[in-house]
Amino acid sequence: MAKLGINAPQAIALIGSHTVGRVHCVHLVSRLYPTVDPTLNASYAEYLKMRCPSPNPDPTALEYSRNDRGTPMIFDNNYYKNVIELKGLLRLDNALFLDPRTKPYVMRMAQDRDYFNEQFIAGMAILTEHNVLTGSEGEIRKNCQWVN
């Protein structure tokens, strides 16, 4: 990200987009089975095991957990509040809080929604200017999951 001109708080804010959406079980089970990842909140791990009961989930099944149980469809700073409680779905999420280099940014974004929004906007503005595809080089998708 630094090569693009995105600084640390902006990069951490961009990761905060995990505040909306979901993660399919196939991407979670390595944190739950055969043993629970020790960086994961124990009660949250039990909840995730209910959402993803099999260590070998069907990759075509719609088994998932929302990134943010509290406000799953609202773009807010709850992601960081969850991360502080070690309730991040992906390893990267909890690592942001556990790493002393990024922890201060996580703490501030959890406490200050405006700061999170400012850093996210600044990082996104830089990101959208990088390597823009034009003409036949790219497309604007009607559904992000599928090529038009």
TrEMBL record:
Reaction catalysis annotation: 2 a phenolic donor + H2O2 = 2 a phenolic radical donor + 2 H2O
GO biological process entries: response to oxidative stress
The EC number(s) this enzyme carries: 1.11.1.7
Binding site for Ca(2+): T19, D68, T71, D76
Cofactor binding note from Swiss-Prot or TrEMBL: Binds 1 heme b (iron(II)-protoporphyrin IX) group per subunit.
UniProt-annotated binding residues for heme b: H18
Cofactor(s) of this protein: heme b; Ca(2+)
InterPro entries: Haem_peroxidase, Haem_peroxidase_sf, Peroxidase_pln
Keywords from the named record: Calcium, Disulfide bond, Heme, Iron, Metal-binding, Oxidoreductase, Peroxidase, Signal
UniProt entry tagged with the keyword Oxidoreductase: yes
Chain ranges passing through the membrane: none
Keyword Iron: yes
Domain Plant heme peroxidase family profile residue range list: 1-148
Domain of life: Eukaryota
GO MF: heme binding; lactoperoxidase activity; metal ion binding
Xref: Pfam families: peroxidase
Disulfide-bonded cysteines: C25-C52
Residues annotated as signal peptide: none
Family: Belongs to the peroxidase family.
Name of the protein in question: peroxidase
